[in-house]
Sequence to fold (277 residues):
Amino acid sequence: MEHVLSTHLFVNHRLTTALLDKIQAAGFQAVEIFCARQHLDYRNRAQINELKHWFRDSGLELRSLHAPMYSDDVWGRSGPNAVINITETVKPKRIQMVDEIKRALDIAESIPFRYLIQHVGVSGEDYDERKMEAAFTSLEELSLFARHRGVSILLENIPNGLSTAERLVHFLAETHLDLGFCLDVGHANMKEGVAEAFGLMQERIRSTHLHDNDGVSDSHLFPFADGGTIDWAETMKLLGSRPGQYPLLLELREVPGMANPLEEAKRIFERLETLRE
Fold:
Protein backbone atom coordinates (compact mmCIF):
# COMPACT_ATOMS: atom_id res chain seq x y z
CA MET A 1 0.00 0.00 0.00
CA GLU A 2 1.14 3.55 -0.66
CA HIS A 3 2.81 5.25 2.32
CA VAL A 4 1.88 8.88 2.97
CA LEU A 5 2.96 11.15 5.82
CA SER A 6 0.93 14.01 7.21
CA THR A 7 2.95 17.10 8.05
CA HIS A 8 0.87 17.22 11.25
CA LEU A 9 4.01 15.67 12.75
CA PHE A 10 5.67 19.09 12.33
CA VAL A 11 2.58 21.29 12.61
CA ASN A 12 4.07 23.63 15.21
CA HIS A 13 6.93 24.49 12.84
CA ARG A 14 6.83 26.47 9.61
CA LEU A 15 6.60 24.22 6.55
CA THR A 16 9.76 24.84 4.52
CA THR A 17 11.36 23.29 1.47
CA ALA A 18 14.14 22.03 3.77
CA LEU A 19 11.60 20.02 5.74
CA LEU A 20 10.08 18.64 2.54
CA ASP A 21 13.59 17.68 1.39
CA LYS A 22 13.98 15.60 4.56
CA ILE A 23 10.59 13.91 4.09
CA GLN A 24 11.44 13.02 0.50
CA ALA A 25 14.92 11.79 1.45
CA ALA A 26 13.35 9.52 4.06
CA GLY A 27 11.60 7.68 1.24
CA PHE A 28 7.99 8.81 1.55
CA GLN A 29 5.95 8.76 -1.65
CA ALA A 30 3.48 11.53 -0.85
CA VAL A 31 2.43 13.96 1.85
CA GLU A 32 -0.71 15.45 3.30
CA ILE A 33 -0.16 19.03 4.40
CA PHE A 34 -1.94 20.10 7.56
CA CYS A 35 -3.37 23.55 6.95
CA ALA A 36 -2.58 25.43 10.15
CA ARG A 37 -1.32 28.95 9.61
CA GLN A 38 1.70 28.62 11.90
CA HIS A 39 2.73 25.72 9.62
CA LEU A 40 1.29 26.49 6.19
CA ASP A 41 -0.08 30.00 5.90
CA TYR A 42 -2.49 29.66 2.98
CA ARG A 43 -2.82 33.46 2.89
CA ASN A 44 0.92 33.93 2.41
CA ARG A 45 1.62 33.96 -1.32
CA ALA A 46 5.38 33.98 -0.78
CA GLN A 47 5.24 30.68 1.14
CA ILE A 48 2.85 29.12 -1.38
CA ASN A 49 5.03 30.17 -4.32
CA GLU A 50 8.15 28.76 -2.66
CA LEU A 51 6.42 25.43 -2.14
CA LYS A 52 4.98 25.54 -5.66
CA HIS A 53 8.44 25.63 -7.22
CA TRP A 54 9.70 22.90 -4.90
CA PHE A 55 6.85 20.48 -5.68
CA ARG A 56 7.18 21.22 -9.41
CA ASP A 57 10.80 20.06 -9.38
CA SER A 58 10.51 17.19 -6.90
CA GLY A 59 9.12 13.68 -7.10
CA LEU A 60 7.09 14.01 -3.91
CA GLU A 61 3.33 14.17 -4.42
CA LEU A 62 1.05 16.50 -2.50
CA ARG A 63 -1.78 14.02 -2.16
CA SER A 64 -4.09 15.92 0.14
CA LEU A 65 -4.58 19.02 2.22
CA HIS A 66 -6.21 19.01 5.65
CA ALA A 67 -8.70 21.88 5.77
CA PRO A 68 -7.92 24.62 8.31
CA MET A 69 -9.58 24.30 11.71
CA TYR A 70 -8.65 27.82 12.86
CA SER A 71 -8.08 31.11 11.07
CA ASP A 72 -5.31 32.20 13.44
CA ASP A 73 -1.82 30.78 14.01
CA VAL A 74 -2.25 29.79 17.68
CA TRP A 75 -4.76 26.91 17.49
CA GLY A 76 -7.77 29.16 18.00
CA ARG A 77 -6.49 30.72 21.21
CA SER A 78 -6.95 34.24 19.83
CA GLY A 79 -10.70 33.88 20.46
CA PRO A 80 -13.86 31.99 19.50
CA ASN A 81 -14.10 33.80 16.17
CA ALA A 82 -10.94 31.99 15.05
CA VAL A 83 -12.69 28.60 15.03
CA ILE A 84 -13.66 27.40 11.54
CA ASN A 85 -16.79 25.26 11.68
CA ILE A 86 -18.95 24.45 8.64
CA THR A 87 -21.90 23.58 10.93
CA GLU A 88 -22.24 27.23 12.05
CA THR A 89 -25.97 28.03 11.90
CA VAL A 90 -25.58 31.84 11.70
CA LYS A 91 -25.29 32.46 7.97
CA PRO A 92 -22.91 35.48 7.91
CA LYS A 93 -20.49 33.66 10.23
CA ARG A 94 -20.75 30.47 8.18
CA ILE A 95 -20.01 32.33 4.95
CA GLN A 96 -16.82 33.74 6.50
CA MET A 97 -15.74 30.25 7.54
CA VAL A 98 -16.47 28.73 4.13
CA ASP A 99 -14.51 31.55 2.51
CA GLU A 100 -11.55 30.73 4.77
CA ILE A 101 -11.59 27.11 3.57
CA LYS A 102 -11.78 28.36 -0.03
CA ARG A 103 -8.56 30.30 0.54
CA ALA A 104 -6.89 27.00 1.40
CA LEU A 105 -8.46 25.27 -1.60
CA ASP A 106 -6.98 27.96 -3.85
CA ILE A 107 -3.59 26.35 -3.20
CA ALA A 108 -4.61 23.75 -5.81
CA GLU A 109 -4.20 26.38 -8.51
CA SER A 110 -0.49 26.56 -7.63
CA ILE A 111 0.18 23.07 -6.25
CA PRO A 112 -2.23 20.39 -7.51
CA PHE A 113 -3.59 17.92 -4.97
CA ARG A 114 -6.35 15.33 -5.03
CA TYR A 115 -8.25 15.63 -1.76
CA LEU A 116 -9.27 18.12 0.90
CA ILE A 117 -9.87 16.46 4.29
CA GLN A 118 -12.78 18.19 5.98
CA HIS A 119 -14.25 17.98 9.50
CA VAL A 120 -17.99 18.27 10.12
CA GLY A 121 -18.23 20.15 13.39
CA VAL A 122 -15.62 20.41 16.13
CA SER A 123 -14.51 17.92 18.76
CA GLY A 124 -17.24 17.15 21.29
CA GLU A 125 -20.00 18.96 19.40
CA ASP A 126 -23.49 17.53 19.94
CA TYR A 127 -25.81 16.38 17.16
CA ASP A 128 -28.31 18.96 15.91
CA GLU A 129 -30.38 18.80 12.72
CA ARG A 130 -29.86 22.52 12.10
CA LYS A 131 -26.10 22.03 12.22
CA MET A 132 -26.31 19.22 9.68
CA GLU A 133 -28.36 21.46 7.40
CA ALA A 134 -25.66 24.11 7.74
CA ALA A 135 -23.02 21.49 6.94
CA PHE A 136 -24.92 20.48 3.81
CA THR A 137 -25.09 24.11 2.63
CA SER A 138 -21.38 24.57 3.30
CA LEU A 139 -20.30 21.34 1.62
CA GLU A 140 -22.50 21.88 -1.42
CA GLU A 141 -20.70 25.17 -2.04
CA LEU A 142 -17.24 23.87 -1.13
CA SER A 143 -17.48 20.72 -3.24
CA LEU A 144 -18.35 22.75 -6.34
CA PHE A 145 -15.50 25.18 -5.63
CA ALA A 146 -13.12 22.25 -5.09
CA ARG A 147 -14.15 20.37 -8.25
CA HIS A 148 -13.34 23.41 -10.36
CA ARG A 149 -9.80 23.07 -9.00
CA GLY A 150 -9.54 19.32 -9.52
CA VAL A 151 -10.05 18.49 -5.83
CA SER A 152 -12.49 16.12 -4.13
CA ILE A 153 -13.62 16.60 -0.53
CA LEU A 154 -13.29 13.74 1.96
CA LEU A 155 -15.24 13.84 5.23
CA GLU A 156 -13.32 12.66 8.28
CA ASN A 157 -14.88 10.87 11.22
CA ILE A 158 -14.07 12.86 14.36
CA PRO A 159 -15.10 12.43 18.02
CA ASN A 160 -18.37 14.33 18.15
CA GLY A 161 -22.08 13.66 17.69
CA LEU A 162 -22.13 14.82 14.06
CA SER A 163 -19.27 12.84 12.54
CA THR A 164 -19.40 9.27 13.74
CA ALA A 165 -19.18 6.75 10.92
CA GLU A 166 -22.91 6.09 11.14
CA ARG A 167 -23.79 9.80 11.05
CA LEU A 168 -21.54 10.48 8.05
CA VAL A 169 -22.94 7.55 6.06
CA HIS A 170 -26.49 8.68 6.83
CA PHE A 171 -25.61 12.29 5.96
CA LEU A 172 -24.38 11.37 2.47
CA ALA A 173 -27.34 9.06 1.89
CA GLU A 174 -29.76 11.85 2.78
CA THR A 175 -28.03 14.69 0.93
CA HIS A 176 -26.73 12.74 -2.10
CA LEU A 177 -23.48 14.69 -1.93
CA ASP A 178 -20.85 12.86 -3.99
CA LEU A 179 -18.11 12.87 -1.36
CA GLY A 180 -15.71 10.27 -0.01
CA PHE A 181 -14.37 9.51 3.45
CA CYS A 182 -11.09 9.74 5.29
CA LEU A 183 -11.13 6.96 7.89
CA ASP A 184 -9.40 8.20 11.04
CA VAL A 185 -8.67 5.05 13.05
CA GLY A 186 -7.61 7.01 16.14
CA HIS A 187 -10.93 8.85 16.22
CA ALA A 188 -12.83 5.61 15.58
CA ASN A 189 -11.03 4.12 18.58
CA MET A 190 -12.53 6.91 20.70
CA LYS A 191 -16.08 6.29 19.46
CA GLU A 192 -17.60 3.17 17.86
CA GLY A 193 -14.39 1.22 17.36
CA VAL A 194 -12.19 0.74 14.31
CA ALA A 195 -13.93 -2.40 13.00
CA GLU A 196 -17.41 -0.88 13.13
CA ALA A 197 -16.28 2.41 11.56
CA PHE A 198 -14.50 0.58 8.75
CA GLY A 199 -17.50 -1.63 8.10
CA LEU A 200 -19.79 1.39 7.73
CA MET A 201 -17.43 3.64 5.76
CA GLN A 202 -15.48 1.17 3.62
CA GLU A 203 -17.14 1.78 0.25
CA ARG A 204 -16.27 5.48 0.27
CA ILE A 205 -12.87 5.47 2.01
CA ARG A 206 -10.31 7.29 -0.14
CA SER A 207 -7.74 8.10 2.53
CA THR A 208 -6.81 7.20 6.09
CA HIS A 209 -5.38 8.77 9.23
CA LEU A 210 -3.38 6.30 11.32
CA HIS A 211 -2.49 7.15 14.93
CA ASP A 212 -3.13 5.70 18.37
CA ASN A 213 -4.61 6.81 21.70
CA ASP A 214 -5.97 5.53 25.00
CA GLY A 215 -9.57 5.57 23.73
CA VAL A 216 -10.30 8.88 25.47
CA SER A 217 -7.72 11.54 24.54
CA ASP A 218 -7.02 12.48 20.91
CA SER A 219 -3.28 12.20 21.47
CA HIS A 220 -2.11 11.15 17.97
CA LEU A 221 0.43 8.67 19.33
CA PHE A 222 2.74 6.71 17.08
CA PRO A 223 1.23 3.24 16.52
CA PHE A 224 2.60 0.67 19.00
CA ALA A 225 3.57 3.44 21.46
CA ASP A 226 2.99 3.03 25.19
CA GLY A 227 -0.53 4.10 26.08
CA GLY A 228 -2.04 3.15 22.74
CA THR A 229 -5.02 0.78 22.70
CA ILE A 230 -5.67 0.06 19.01
CA ASP A 231 -5.39 -3.55 17.87
CA TRP A 232 -3.10 -2.92 14.90
CA ALA A 233 -3.18 -6.54 13.70
CA GLU A 234 -6.97 -6.37 13.34
CA THR A 235 -6.81 -2.86 11.87
CA MET A 236 -4.29 -3.85 9.19
CA LYS A 237 -6.33 -6.92 8.30
CA LEU A 238 -9.31 -4.64 7.70
CA LEU A 239 -7.35 -2.01 5.76
CA GLY A 240 -5.62 -4.68 3.69
CA SER A 241 -8.97 -6.08 2.57
CA ARG A 242 -9.41 -3.28 0.01
CA PRO A 243 -6.00 -2.90 -1.68
CA GLY A 244 -5.49 0.07 -3.98
CA GLN A 245 -8.48 2.00 -2.67
CA TYR A 246 -6.58 4.22 -0.23
CA PRO A 247 -3.08 4.74 1.18
CA LEU A 248 -1.74 4.22 4.66
CA LEU A 249 -1.36 7.75 5.99
CA LEU A 250 0.30 8.51 9.32
CA GLU A 251 -1.07 11.58 11.15
CA LEU A 252 1.17 11.82 14.22
CA ARG A 253 1.99 14.29 16.96
CA GLU A 254 5.54 15.43 17.58
CA VAL A 255 7.21 13.63 20.49
CA PRO A 256 9.55 15.87 22.52
CA GLY A 257 13.03 14.44 22.55
CA MET A 258 12.51 11.98 19.70
CA ALA A 259 15.77 12.18 17.76
CA ASN A 260 14.54 11.20 14.29
CA PRO A 261 10.75 11.07 13.90
CA LEU A 262 10.98 10.41 10.15
CA GLU A 263 13.01 7.25 10.71
CA GLU A 264 10.56 6.16 13.40
CA ALA A 265 7.65 6.77 11.00
CA LYS A 266 9.38 4.57 8.41
CA ARG A 267 9.77 1.79 11.01
CA ILE A 268 6.09 2.10 11.87
CA PHE A 269 5.13 1.59 8.23
CA GLU A 270 7.36 -1.50 8.07
CA ARG A 271 5.67 -2.99 11.15
CA LEU A 272 2.21 -2.22 9.78
CA GLU A 273 3.04 -3.85 6.44
CA THR A 274 4.32 -6.93 8.27
CA LEU A 275 0.95 -7.21 10.01
CA ARG A 276 -0.90 -6.77 6.74
CA GLU A 277 1.10 -9.55 5.10
Remarks:
- Strands lie at 3-6, 30-34, 61-66, 115-119, 152-156, 180-184, 205-209, 248-250.
- Residues 3-276 form a domain with the TIM Barrel fold (CATH 3.20.20.150).
